[in-house]
Structures are given as structure tokens and as C-alpha cells.
Amino acid sequence: MLKLKYILKRIILKLPFGFRFNQIIRSILLLRERSFRDLFFEVKRKDICLDLGANIGDASLVMWFKGVRFIYALEPNIEVFNILNNNLRGIRNFKALNIAISSESSTQKLYLHKSILDKSDKKKILEFSQASSLMADKSNLGNCFYEIKTKNFKDLFDSFEKKPNIIKCDIEGGEYIIYEQLIELAKQPQVRKIFVECHAEKYPQYIDLHNDFIRSIKENNLRNKFRTDWH
User: Which residue of 53, 98, 178, 219 is surrounded by the most CB atoms within 10 Å?
Assistant: First the structure.
């Protein structure tokens, strides 16, 4: 079956506009997952979207398929960033940035999965790319890391010519670094929805920060702005 899918994909890609057709098919297949369906039905054609922790671009592809106005996507892992750019090539209303979001603008360590012993092992880097994180105490991370550029979230947001009103955040525990900035952004009337994958269930060392985040959402009456069950 996998071999047949590979052959069909090769045939499609050789057709005129084959790559665009493949992007459309990929977008449709992603909608089998509830999280991507939720994102698809929330976004609208006039939305400006921000994809934090874009990985290979699945969420960005779903938002593009819905026909949003513009998408910014952040992915700090350089190997994955290259795949992201390739997967969304030819899409004009899309811009990828090879940086991580954080509480400060600086150079920081992006830790890789514990099975990765050498940065030359590109196959494993791609296989375990979703584990990459600034949070060194995550139990699935090892000692191998990239030094990457990070950007203060508020500074990044303010720098955008087109201000996002939809934010998807899946940054492997990093949400607890920036949750206060997420709260402040959610107070802005133009921000309509923020989808956050929270990692405290998998990594209990973050439970206190997670509870502070949820409490802050409730205290600021922002429950209608956040989806903290996205994954």
C-alpha cells in the first residue's frame, strides 16, 4: 500500500500543476484529524494567521486551503524549516521564518529528541522533529541541540505589517514561556482565536505554570478566545 501511494504521488507530481494538486490532496487528507477540522472551520477568508511551531506545515496548509488572506509560519529547526518551505512552495500568501518564539530576543538552544546523537543524522532529526524544544527539562530531549535565534513574542507581533487575528501555537512546552504574552494579545479586540497545544499532561513539571495559564484565561474572561485542547 505504501509503495502504491509513493508511485501515485510520483505520477501526480509529474503532471502539469501536479505539485499544487498534491497540496490540495494533502490538505483534504489532514481534515480527517479533529484538530485540523477545528482549525479549518474557525478560520475565514479575511484572516491573517500565525503558525507558531509550524513543523512541516500541516496547519499552515489547512489554513491556506481554507483561503485565508495571509499566513506567517515560524519553525526554528533548520532541517524541518527547509521541508516546510518546500511543502508550501508556490503559495504567495505565505511567509516562513526560521526563528523560535520566546520571552526574549536572543540566541538560545533548541534541544532535539534524545534518540538524536549527532546533528548530521538528518533522518532522525526529521523523524523526531516534533519533539524539538527550548525547554531543556523535557524528558524526551537529549544533549544534542541547535543554537537558534529567538524573538520576543510581542516584538514579533508588533513587527508584522499584517497583524494576525488567528494564532496556532504548538511549541513543545514553550507555551509556558510566553503564556503571559498570549494573554495580553488575546485582550486585543482584533485577535479572534488562539489555538494552543498544552504539554503539562505529558510533562507534569509544567503543571503549576499550566494552572497559572488557565487561571489567567478565566480571570481575564478570555475563555472564548482560547482553545487549549488543540493537538
Answer: 53
112, containing H or E segment? strand 106-113
Contact of 226 with 187, CB cutoff 8 Å: no
Q: What length does the chain have?
A: 231
**Which of 220-229's residues contact partners 24+ apart within 8 Å by CB, and which partners?**
220/183, 220/186, 220/187, 222/183, 222/186, 222/187, 225/186, 225/191, 225/192, 225/193, 225/194, 226/182, 226/186, 226/193, 226/194, 226/196, 227/38, 227/193, 227/194, 227/195, 227/196, 228/196, 228/198, 229/198
One-letter amino acid at 154 equals K
User: In this structure, what are the phi and psi dihedrals at residue 51, rounded to the nearest 5 degrees?
Assistant: -105, 100
Nearest CA among 25, 31, 28 for reference residue 13: 25
Query: Nearest Cα to 177, choosing from 202, 143, 150?
Result: 150
What is the residue type of 28? I
Per the CB < 8 A criterion, the answer to whether 169 and 52 are in contact is: yes
| Residue 17 in grid coordinates | 500543476
Three-state secondary structure call for residue 156: helix
Q: How many CA atoms lie within 13 A of 103 on its CB side?
A: 10
pTM (2 decimals)?
0.91
Phi first, then psi: give them for residue 163, nearest 5 degrees: -85, 125
**What percentage of the chain reaches a pLDDT higher than 70?**
93
